Amino acid sequence: MTHSPDGLSQAPSADAMRGHVALKGFFSICAEWQCSAHEMTQLLGGVSRATLSQYQNLPYVKLPNETLERISYLLGIYKSLRSMYPTAERASRRMRLSTDDFPFVGESALQYMTRGTTETLALTRRYFEAMHASQ
User: Fold this and answer.
1) Which DSSP state fits 124?
2) Fewer Cβ atoms within 10 A, N terminus or C terminus of the chain?
3) Cβ(9)–Cβ(1) under 8 Å?
């Protein structure tokens, strides 16, 4: 809930609600993947530690479109992994396994994604969606 200037409570805006739900999903995925604070800041596009700390409180906040796009890619990756592997543990382990497959070429998916660009997230999502579709 937010408070109006007259002190009355009001429901969060649709954008603030969307931000809250996106952050909740992001931090749930990061917990399963056992991401470090540095990895989380990079997955969100290089946000500061202070911003990450604020986001960890799951505020009702309008997130920048790029942040929502990044979280959307991560949700798609998560969905593909969970469809491909029978347990959350195996799906999470896959994120840290190095592979010679394109686009990772010797890195794990998580290492590749933490380069910080939305393109690395998009390519990772396409990779896992294609892997899932080929099963």
Assistant:
1) H
2) C
3) yes
